[in-house]
Design goal:
Chain lengths: ~300, ~300, ~300, ~300, ~300
Amino acid sequence: MMTKRVKEILNHYPGENAGVLTNLARLMMSGRLGGTGKFVILPVDQGFEHGPARSFAVNPPAYDPAYHFQLALDAGCNAYAAPLGFLEAGAAEFAGAIPLILKLNNHDVLHDEKDPLSAQTASVKDALRLGAAAIGFTIYPGSSNAQIMYSQLRELALEAKSHGLAVVVWSYPRGSDISKEGETAIDVVAYAAQIAAQLGAHVIKVKAPSSHIELAEAKKAYEKAKVPIETLADRIRHVVQSSFNGKRIVIFSGGATVGDEQLLAEVKGIHEGGGFGSIVGRNSFQRPHDKAVELLGKIMSIYAS
Amino acid sequence: MMTKRVKEILNHYPGENAGVLTNLARLMMSGRLGGTGKFVILPVDQGFEHGPARSFAVNPPAYDPAYHFQLALDAGCNAYAAPLGFLEAGAAEFAGAIPLILKLNNHDVLHDEKDPLSAQTASVKDALRLGAAAIGFTIYPGSSNAQIMYSQLRELALEAKSHGLAVVVWSYPRGSDISKEGETAIDVVAYAAQIAAQLGAHVIKVKAPSSHIELAEAKKAYEKAKVPIETLADRIRHVVQSSFNGKRIVIFSGGATVGDEQLLAEVKGIHEGGGFGSIVGRNSFQRPHDKAVELLGKIMSIYAS
Amino acid sequence: MMTKRVKEILNHYPGENAGVLTNLARLMMSGRLGGTGKFVILPVDQGFEHGPARSFAVNPPAYDPAYHFQLALDAGCNAYAAPLGFLEAGAAEFAGAIPLILKLNNHDVLHDEKDPLSAQTASVKDALRLGAAAIGFTIYPGSSNAQIMYSQLRELALEAKSHGLAVVVWSYPRGSDISKEGETAIDVVAYAAQIAAQLGAHVIKVKAPSSHIELAEAKKAYEKAKVPIETLADRIRHVVQSSFNGKRIVIFSGGATVGDEQLLAEVKGIHEGGGFGSIVGRNSFQRPHDKAVELLGKIMSIYAS
Amino acid sequence: MMTKRVKEILNHYPGENAGVLTNLARLMMSGRLGGTGKFVILPVDQGFEHGPARSFAVNPPAYDPAYHFQLALDAGCNAYAAPLGFLEAGAAEFAGAIPLILKLNNHDVLHDEKDPLSAQTASVKDALRLGAAAIGFTIYPGSSNAQIMYSQLRELALEAKSHGLAVVVWSYPRGSDISKEGETAIDVVAYAAQIAAQLGAHVIKVKAPSSHIELAEAKKAYEKAKVPIETLADRIRHVVQSSFNGKRIVIFSGGATVGDEQLLAEVKGIHEGGGFGSIVGRNSFQRPHDKAVELLGKIMSIYAS
Amino acid sequence: MMTKRVKEILNHYPGENAGVLTNLARLMMSGRLGGTGKFVILPVDQGFEHGPARSFAVNPPAYDPAYHFQLALDAGCNAYAAPLGFLEAGAAEFAGAIPLILKLNNHDVLHDEKDPLSAQTASVKDALRLGAAAIGFTIYPGSSNAQIMYSQLRELALEAKSHGLAVVVWSYPRGSDISKEGETAIDVVAYAAQIAAQLGAHVIKVKAPSSHIELAEAKKAYEKAKVPIETLADRIRHVVQSSFNGKRIVIFSGGATVGDEQLLAEVKGIHEGGGFGSIVGRNSFQRPHDKAVELLGKIMSIYAS
């Protein structure tokens, strides 16, 4: 049953057509966190982004596309996000079981570049024929190729929305002008969230921010206004604020595999700071199925609290 | 959670894309009968088909589009079906609450004709922007205008399927060559179900058949093969068989308002004969909300048994 | 300043895009009645529909397209509605002065028929380049050509909405199955309003209804439910109810020129019954400019009370 | 392995693209008669054309779409032809097992008319997505609606050929100017074959002709030229000649169920007269599976001799 | 007759339409290996890719397009793959004799670049008019132009699938960031297979991998998970696993001409490792016809064992 909180979040998207709202509702009403307005999403694009062995060798059943549908389902995730091939291979078998997010662009590391450009690898029409609830798209703010990706997103988002699909944007700062540390700097992450929101994203995915500040001009502003960025919860609060004052759903990734304690502590910080949830890829599918379900269960328990 | 029975029914639609299967699954996994493979759908097109006073004066809250969304939801229906205007007026407010079927054609009685032709009143693009799970389309086999409607359905169904939408066909025999009694004759109803199935319908809606046989050639066939048509259950069984041996979902309408006893007896017959469910319009929205929920509850209890 | 009442009315169109809402707001925030949620619109399509002499000979300045823009402006109307040529001739000169409604179809009497079919005479693209706030479209429910017009409206409304334009539908029952008296019968007018609403109209224009009931089946329903239809206010109330329980803007025309007393009495009835306003053509532009401004002023005073 | 005879027949279609030739070759290289240039095709459109009970009650397993795929396969037919619904229900399961012909138009008897017009019920796009080798289309030469069907065929055949699909035309003379006897008259059947060939059919299906001559002018010509039409073989030879001197594949139907002796005698006549084969519907699926396989086997043995 | 193994493989492509499944079945049911689920394909694009003399001077009859159709046929290959011109020149003559794969892009060495970009040289419409069973497309993961090719494939694959064609992807790592040795490194080949699968390929063609590991990050993963890559069979097994755990057909090329012993040993390794087959170009058409048939026969014997 539709909850007050989900209704409240949907009200942040007035003027969107009923199709978009329906698909946003689907994302929020599915799985164990259904109805809370919180999200735990399973994304599996690492096969494309990092290569198969780096992604799956540590847990070989994960080579199989069906594995991830089942994992997302067993863990009670809100949605499962993947590139075209992985969704095509299982969407019919798992039809109706869990909302899907089709990633429309992807990047591989066989040609690695300082200023990355993701390739368009699927279409809005694919999302519709696969029954996906949303399209996913990655932008790399800071890349010298960012304009190309912003412009591709512009067209795909317009087409997706007119066909009733929600738009999820992965916003990952990277490029020759940003330091490695800067990629997760609080000012840069907040900026990346803002850019995604301004590009019309319904759901925004960024990395959990550090307390580092990358840009000199930004530093002045943070100091002058005394923006609290000491604790993770502070920083999450700032990113949520930067996402239209909390009117856009913003979720966080943990990135590379880390110890469980550290991961759960981070999730607590995200939750405390008002983040809408987590997207947990490698930390889930790179361990055995039951261990992954257990970990995802702990994460959901935090968000449900 | 997806049930074995729903999976079994979905397997009757091999080769359909995952989008179509997802939307069929949505219809079968929603509401109180979710997971049973049985259907109770609320259709409200009578405002268009018969006029507002004839439809709603007896229960004035039903003039309001929101009323029907809420009724379908409160009663636990699988889906709510209506023309463009009624869905536009409530789909955003009720986004994600219940699967919708957008009726793409409608007929009014201001110009009544022996050989009716429904007007196209909405598009597949409307269904997508409204977040509908399926398009609905009415054909009048027996009308001299039937060819036009078959051909319109052909194009709309192809477009709908390629965009991942399910196709629900109302198949109502009417026309200058069919007697009033013939419109619900067992041979004619079974024929109407077959035609809808051959036109590519995923879900077929026909009227509950009487034991009358309309066509002379058919009469010979029924007698020669001793097709049992005495009880309603017998006749339902025959219509289900005529819908690709039960491989197409076929549901039944009760037509005009009747006494509850009679209606529930009919539902028992439909259930006993293996029918997939009922579509209950006037018998639900033309009585007070709570009485309607009560009646629909009784109907669902029969199908759930 | 946006008023509470206008906000309230806009809330009846959830899920419409901001462009559509903006144009609906423009119609409601313009002129002397701006902010009240009431409408007085000047329509001038009689040159096309009845011929120039029948329309303008009695007040020759009205041959000039600029005349009507100025009249609507001087009188403080919410909007001015006309066919392509009239708008093209003045829209640039009066740009920004008053909201425009471009009528996309029109009918002339050089070829008169029992079952009329209006010709498409302008496009959504025309409406955009002319800066119109809405498209206008006439349907003739009851005509054997009604299906064609419904289907044309379906396509034009979808296109208009996706381009952010509002949709105004003139719904005039006419055809070989409807008596002359029936064209304004309460059941037929309420039905015509319902059909326009179901076809997705944002604003509906019908004729003020008489207490005659045309259809036998409808008569039973009115009598059974004891729908009050004695006074004009009663009947207006019923038509408003038939327009999605007042969730669609429904306005009324007076038809042929009548005495001012009679016209103002009718307006009082419309206002008392909860109608959203009047569309006053011949009764305004077929008298001298100042007399017209005076009469329209009196009408607005009633709606403003 | 491609045979000389099949090559020879393909050479009758010079200038057709390789896709069309490939699909014609598929039809000729499949099943037990593969390579002989002879055809036995299973067509099952009677569910649509005559109604389900008249078609299947005598052999109830035939209500199931999968039954006919399996029957055609078990009997070793060259191809299976059916309307959209029947093919959609089994094409994925039987993918690659047997060439399919999608019938793009169909006619039902709920509205029966002297001058029939088949409704378009599927598209070339459907044929492609279903993996069909050919489209099928019925024309009724002699119907006052014939021009409409010729013109529809013109467009569909052009589209089909440009997409590499073969075109099979059912040419059945019927209409208010043709007597019942005339429908199978030798002059009329030969004329129907010629019309189909002139419309661009690759494969033509007509009824086995009687020795009756319908048209007075034709009678003179047959008598003057002493065209032999006494035996069935004579008449078949004449129809084959009328199909571009044997350069178009022309096959024959037996029509209503008849005794096996009579049917086999007819097949012998067709074979002797140089006919390319038989299309056997009701005589096969209206008897038990094994009996049907047996009968079809006998027919194939005649053509293989 | 369709085999259990072919059915099993087709079941890895649920949700694909019957047309795609039919063409995949055609590829698997043709030639000497028909029914085994194994493939030997003859590809001849070297005329375009390397120039005519480098390709054909050593065996001049191979300059003739007909030569290769006949060779593929005589050897009993599953399919013949070539660019537009070669197929146009022979597809009509060999219609129906052998499944064709039309390569939609090609690259020549007149302009050689470190980061290659294949040119689109044919269309899906060409594939249809030529009667091809599949489109072929080459991507160069690792090229700085890879994104362009991925995006082209995205559009062509969507169009091909909706028209019922299968999609075969040649995935050849090449580019300024990859060493010559790296092009066949196990990690790079497995990655290339994964990328093709994620882009929606039904059949993937890669080079037989060496035990070299190119990428530092990958090296860690292989070592950590102790992925066995010592023998060719080990490595093939890993590539098959990387192709959706064996749910995508992956076949291997031998590349440059080598000694027969070495080639056959390699084929044994591919077979032992669970590879789906070989694509053998230069090693077949650059020797006399009979020798080529002999060699291909030996290869097929290995796969049939």
